[in-house]
Design a protein that fits this description.
By secondary structure, the protein is of the alpha/beta class. Helices cover 42% and strands 16% of the residues.
């Protein structure tokens, strides 16, 4: 699978109020491995930058004055993305801004260009409810060096997010079925057609305590809607 890790920087937080994209950073994963392909552009938004946004990314109107406008790089950008699955942290924000830029040019939205979107913020919340889920927090959790991230930058953040995503989803490739494996009836033949005896490993007291702690975190994050806890508390028939 081809995946594109994508991040943007913008003039502000409100696309509906006319804020625009001023930086795009993308890195490519193929078969869960980083390639050397990158897409990185600074853009002239044709408008001022909010002071709050500038404090986050450090990009100024003076720096962007001689940079291309989105229309000048749109075709190259779409060609880079086409057919890939996107991986974005807080995907709704970036997708909303990019779809706005594409829409202003009468171009098709990302949903028609790409195979889908993975939101790593949503994934992190599902995996670790109750914890911080910023990119810095995830880098710290997965022991990824982010010491150079003094300001937000689209390309640097995309590179860090690629490492975070691979760490978050490590081991999932083992869920893929091996189509070359021996048929089931042949593999059972090794045991004379009999199922091997199953070993039952019971949870220790420490493991049961940790399980209850995790359920409590899920219940807190979901405002009491923890299905596992509900099932455990319901009377047995």
């Amino acid at each position: 699978m081809r995946q594109i890790i994508l991040d943007t920087e913008t003039t502000g937080l409100e696309v509906k109020l006319g804020d625009r994209v001023i930086e795009i950073g993308c890195v490519e994963l193929t078969g869960r491995k980083l390639t050397q392909r990158r897409f990185h552009r600074y853009l002239n938004p044709g408008r001022s930058i909010d002071a709050g946004a500038q404090a986050v990314h450090g990009l100024t109107s003076e720096f962007l004055q001689d940079k291309p406008k989105f229309a000048e790089i749109a075709a190259e950008f779409v060609d880079f993305l086409r057919g890939a699955e996107l991986v974005i942290h807080n995907a709704a924000f970036d997708v909303g801004f990019i779809d706005n830029e594409l829409g202003l040019l009468g171009m098709e939205p990302l949903s028609q260009i790409c195979a889908g979107v993975v939101d790593t913020l949503r994934l992190a919340r599902e995996m670790h409810p109750g914890r911080k889920h910023s990119l810095n927090a995830l880098c710290a959790h997965f022991q990824i060096d982010h010491s150079g991230r003094t300001l937000h930058g689209a390309l640097l953040d995309a590179e860090l997010l690629a490492e975070v995503y691979l760490a978050m989803t490590r081991g999932q490739e083992s869920l893929v079925m091996d189509l070359d494996a021996a048929p089931l009836d042949e593999s059972l033949g090794e045991h004379g057609g009999q199922r091997p005896r199953l070993m039952v490993l019971r949870a220790s007291a420490k493991e049961l305590t940790e399980h209850q702690r995790v359920l409590a975190e899920i219940a807190k994050e979901s405002k009491g809607n923890c299905l596992w806890q509900s099932a455990a508390d319901s009377p047995k028939s």
